[in-house]
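User: Sequence recovery, please. Input:
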């Protein structure tokens, strides 16, 4: 097995011009995290083999591409995707960082919606696909990373049906209301692109939840335990909070090259306390608010002036995007103002570098800093916060962390602030500087043991393990009910002394009609059911979601058992009705009101009130409109009905709102208790019938009418086929010789 990692950037940047090419490590969280995890995977003989595919960080002239490709393969196990400057302008600076980044970080006012950018996004994703097609081998697993490549999973899936594809999103996934700001075809392509993967990972459960909503609202596909049935595949979603290489940071101060840097820093800062601020240049990192908070802290606490220094590192990033240049200008200006306002010849309140550091000075800063301000307005995870905590060998530093960083879900035991509350951040600085050593130890110890346990190795391994775990799947695939199986079923049936036929009605014994009332049983059906049930060794049980009055009217002349409304009512073969599953009924009024509002807005839709449930039928409504309205309605009910025992369930061209305890599984289990059958045949067509299939004993013949996506053992294609099979049963002789 070979792991193919795909990300926008390779872990190395090609520098220099033409033949004088050199390689440098690229900055940023994704590369840091993944490089470490791949190193760790090398311990694992199974996944030793890997190849990293991505952009080499610069445009390489065509005549040098071959050399670069060779060098990358030999030295870094990497394979480049070459792009032109013009492509990167529209793809990377354009769609990725002027459209997706602000939208996914819920700052829509900064988003740029440009059709050309999206076109280029598609093109570059295709370019990645083309490179992958050339290198992929059977048994490779592909792990695609981040928002730059969200169309790639489906593009690959179209080429390789069976390949394992994982996708991890390193940034937040926004709420549907924000996601919806993307034009409809863009967002639909993004969702469909992602659903090409087998596993989609997020840093937090809330991003995963937002994605689930976006899928449900965009495609109408409902999730079950975080899984989606996309065509005949199951797509899993899960939260995998990224960790760090804990030991690397924890042991860093022990390294000579780092301890030298620490000594230098001590000389520079003297007795002053040092507060750190280290980020990539980005408006999402909250750097300007942080500066304002530091200013307020100095204003409020004159006694701390001259005794504290803010060491600010801003790593250059996306400077070609207008908003980044603007953020940089504001930062420069604020720093100038604050230094001018409070500083003097002996003391500069803020020391500032706009550059990329190598590991040693970065680790030395982590060690030397008495506190760090990590106050993003929003951040997928934020690795700097974790690295800083890990680097506190003496447990003596304090992390001030924004509640809007993904990391805040894990590092709760630290000083948590709201990134927009300047006053709170100013107070947090004071609190951090005045904390006792004992308080810091109490705070840092559990954080460190957590970070050590859930490190980057664990993150990568968990993701790959999950990707390799065979999808249990919402439904496994059923076999077609061929003549061989039919013969076996007939044989088992003739041998049996007691047989049960458990049959759904609509879609199984009769086809669908425009109006539910029109689906009357045909004479042929009535005759077949009568014939089977006339044998005392056979029991025929109709199990339907329909109301009892229709079923009574249609079947009053034949002696079969009937479950109506998914088991709310039961009629024995002598025609006596009784309440069977007694469930809550007093939820209907409010639900009906809402459904009626939606029915008025969706021409052709119909609301049906049953005794124990309500149904919204949209078979006769426009498909286009239904595709918008139904997911919205389902989401609304999911939220409204949370904390109650009422659920919303998709049925064929409808949604039904009913008690969770009212289902075919409960009805069938209750019915089968204390009864013995040596032959059971159960048939159904709908998602609701899956409950029934699950409740059957192993030796039952379960049949889905429709397609193979089912928990049933077998499937057939049509209602007519079902009737033919039942007809054959009606003619067979049974053990009693009938
Ligand atoms: C994205 C998501 C998510 C920083 N300055 C220097 C330097 N760094 C390294 C840090 C850290 C990484 O860069 C920054 O990672 P972050 O997580 O803080 O932020 P993003 O770059 O925005 O990362 C983020 C991450 O992906 C991982 O999934 O956490 O939410 O936005 O590792 O150490 N490294 C060097 N010199 C520097 O000056 N060498």
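Assistant: Recovered sequence (738 residues):
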């Amino acid at each position: 097995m070979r792991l193919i990692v795909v990300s926008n950037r390779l872990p190395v940047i090609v520098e220099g011009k033409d033949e004088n090419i050199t390689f440098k490590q690229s900055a940023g969280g994704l590369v840091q995290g993944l490089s470490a995890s791949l190193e760790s995977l090398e311990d694992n003989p199974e996944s030793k083999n890997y190849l990293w595919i991505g952009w080499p960080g610069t445009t390489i002239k065509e005549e040098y591409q071959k050399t670069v490709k060779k060098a990358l393969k030999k030295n870094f196990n990497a394979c480049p995707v070459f792009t032109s400057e013009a492509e990167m302008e529209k793809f990377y600076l354009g769609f990725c960082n002027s459209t997706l980044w602000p939208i996914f970080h819920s700052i829509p006012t900064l988003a740029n919606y440009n059709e050309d950018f999206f076109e280029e996004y598609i093109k570059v994703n295709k370019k990645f696909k083309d490179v992958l097609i050339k290198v992929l081998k059977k048994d490779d697993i592909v792990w695609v990373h981040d928002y730059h490549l969200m169309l790639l999973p489906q593009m690959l899936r179209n080429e390789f049906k069976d390949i394992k594809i994982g996708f991890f999103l390193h940034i937040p996934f926004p709420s549907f209301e924000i996601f919806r700001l993307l034009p409809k075809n863009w967002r639909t392509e993004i969702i469909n692109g992602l659903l090409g993967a087998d596993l989609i990972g997020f840093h937090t459960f809330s991003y995963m939840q937002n994605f689930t909503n976006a899928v449900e609202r965009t495609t109408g596909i409902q999730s079950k335990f975080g899984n989606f049935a996309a065509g005949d595949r199951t797509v899993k979603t899960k939260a995998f909070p990224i960790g760090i290489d804990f030991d690397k940071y924890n042991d860093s101060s022990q390294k000579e090259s780092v301890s030298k840097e620490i000594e230098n820093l001590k000389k520079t800062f003297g007795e002053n306390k040092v507060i750190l601020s280290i980020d990539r240049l980005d408006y999402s990192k909250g750097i300007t608010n942080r500066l304002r908070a530091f200013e307020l802290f100095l204003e409020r606490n004159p006694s701390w002036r001259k005794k504290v220094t803010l060491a600010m590192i801003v790593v250059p990033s996306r400077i070609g995007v207008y908003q980044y240049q603007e953020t940089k200008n504001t930062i420069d200006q604020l720093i100038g103002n604050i230094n001018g306002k409070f500083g003097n010849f002996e003391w500069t309140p803020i020391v500032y570098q706009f550059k990329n550091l190598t590991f040693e000075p970065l680790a030395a800063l982590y060690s030397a800093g008495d506190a760090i301000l990590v106050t993003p307005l929003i951040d997928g995870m934020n690795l700097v916060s974790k690295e800083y905590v890990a680097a506190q060998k003496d447990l003596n530093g304090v992390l001030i962390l924004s509640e809007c960083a993904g990391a805040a879900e894990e590092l709760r035991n630290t000083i948590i602030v709201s990134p927009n509350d300047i006053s709170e951040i100013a107070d947090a600085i004071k609190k951090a500087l005045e904390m006792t050593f004992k308080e810091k130890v109490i705070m840092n110890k559990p954080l460190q043991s957590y970070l050590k346990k859930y490190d980057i190795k664990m993150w990568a391994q968990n993701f790959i393990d999950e990707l390799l775990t065979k999808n249990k799947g919402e439904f496994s695939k059923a076999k077609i009910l061929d003549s061989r199986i039919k013969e076996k079923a007939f044989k088992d049936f003739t041998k049996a002394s007691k047989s049960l036929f458990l049959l759904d009605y609509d879609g199984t014994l009769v086809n669908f009609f425009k109006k539910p009332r029109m689906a009357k049983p045909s004479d042929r059906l009535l005759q077949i059911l009568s014939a089977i049930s006339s044998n005392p060794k056979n029991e025929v049980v109709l199990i339907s979601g329909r109301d009892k009055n229709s079923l009574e009217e249609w079947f009053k002349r034949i002696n079969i058992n009937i479950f109506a409304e998914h088991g709310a009512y039961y009629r024995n073969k002598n025609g006596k009705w009784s309440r069977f599953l007694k469930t809550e009924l007093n939820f209907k009024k409010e639900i009906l009101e809402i459904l009626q509002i939606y029915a008025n807005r969706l021409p052709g839709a119909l609301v049906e009130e049953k005794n124990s449930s309500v149904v919204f039928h949209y078979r006769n409504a426009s498909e286009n409109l239904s595709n918008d309205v139904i997911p919205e309605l389902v989401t609304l009910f999911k939220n409204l009905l949370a904390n109650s025992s009422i659920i919303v369930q998709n049925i064929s061209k409808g949604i039904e709102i009913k008690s969770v305890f009212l289902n075919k599984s409960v009805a069938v289990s209750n019915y089968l208790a204390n009864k013995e059958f040596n032959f059971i045949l159960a048939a159904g067509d709908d998602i609701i019938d899956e409950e029934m299939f699950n409740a059957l004993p192993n030796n039952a013949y379960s049949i889905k009418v429709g397609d193979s996506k089912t928990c049933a053992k077998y499937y057939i294609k049509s209602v007519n086929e079902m009737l033919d099979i039942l007809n054959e049963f009606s003619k067979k002789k049974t053990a009693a010789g009938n």
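The chain has a mean pLDDT of 92.
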